Amino acid sequence: MQHVSKRNINPRAAGEEVVSLLSIRNGVPELNFTEMLPTEMSVKIFSELDVRSLCHASVTCKHWNLIIEGSDNLWRSHCLSALAVSHREVDGDRSNGLSWKVTLVRNYQKSCVKRRWLKGKYSNIRCVEDLPPNSMCSLDVETWGEILEAELER
């Protein structure tokens, strides 16, 4: 016969430390992992999220928001990935003292537009009226040069 051990998560039976980590939702106690783990571990977990998921996680609760907003490294990795439009713009934002998150937000739409153009999403467009919304934005000369080269190769 197999013995199954059940943890007692009843707040009245738990020690004071565990009680402070419990939240009650619909009468069921829940644990918030970010309050139980060192901040460095929570940051490591959050670093596995993509940009959209990271933004959603930051509005989940105040504690998650404090960790995510307080860790510039979480945003740095996304900013330096394929999302960054050009190193010149990122370097300019950083030299102006902007955080990695602000730099990412400022360049996110540009990077999406650049990525779509480079993938050829707009290659068969014949006139301006055929362009979908949000398919154009101001890009630097270097970026438009990359897009033109990609279009000429197609």
From TrEMBL:
Naming one, the record's GO cellular component terms include: SCF ubiquitin ligase complex
Keywords, comma-separated and alphabetical: Ubl conjugation pathway
List the Pfam families hit by this protein, alphabetically.
F-box-like
Q: Which GO terms describe its biological process?
A: protein ubiquitination; SCF-dependent proteasomal ubiquitin-dependent protein catabolic process
Metabolic or biological pathway: Protein modification; protein ubiquitination
Per its UniProt record, what SUPFAM superfamilies does this chain match?
Answer: F-box domain
Q: According to the lineage, what is the superkingdom?
A: Eukaryota
F-box domain: from which residue to which, for each copy? 31-78
According to UniProt, the name of this protein is: F-box domain-containing protein
